[in-house]
Amino acid sequence: MHRRVLPGFGISLGYAVSYLGLIVLLPLAALAWKASGIGGEGLLRLLSSPRTLAALKLSFGGALLAALINAFIGLLVAWALVRYRFPGRRLFDALIDLPFALPTAVAGIALTALYAPNGWLGRWLVPLGIQVAYAPLGVLLAMVFVGFPFVVRTLQPVLQSLDRDVEEAAESLGASRWQTFARVILPVLVPTLLTGFALALARAVGEYGSVIFIAGNIPMRSEIAPLLIVQKLEAFDYAGAAALGVVMLSFSFLLLILISLLQRWSNRWEERAA
Amino acid sequence: MTMELSRLSRRFTDFAALDDVSLSIAPGEFLALLGPSGSGKTTLLRILAGLDYPDSGGVQKDGRDFLAAQARERHVGLVFQHYALFRHLTVRENIAFGLRIRPRRTRPSRAEIGDRVTRLLKRVQLDDHGDRYPSQLSGGQRQRVALARALAVEPDLLLLDEPFGALDAQVRVTLRRWLRELHDELRLTTVFVTHDQEEALELADRIAVMNQGRIEQVGSPEEIYQQPATPFVCEFIGKVNRLTLSENSGSLAAGEWILPDDPWDGRYRQGIAYVRPDQLRVAVPPPQPAWTARLRHVYLAGSVAHLDLHVASLDQALEADVASEDLARLGLQPGAELRVAPRSAVLFPLADDTGQPIARDRSTWRPPDNS
Question: In this predicted structure, what is the pLDDT of residue B33?
Answer without folding.
Answer: 96
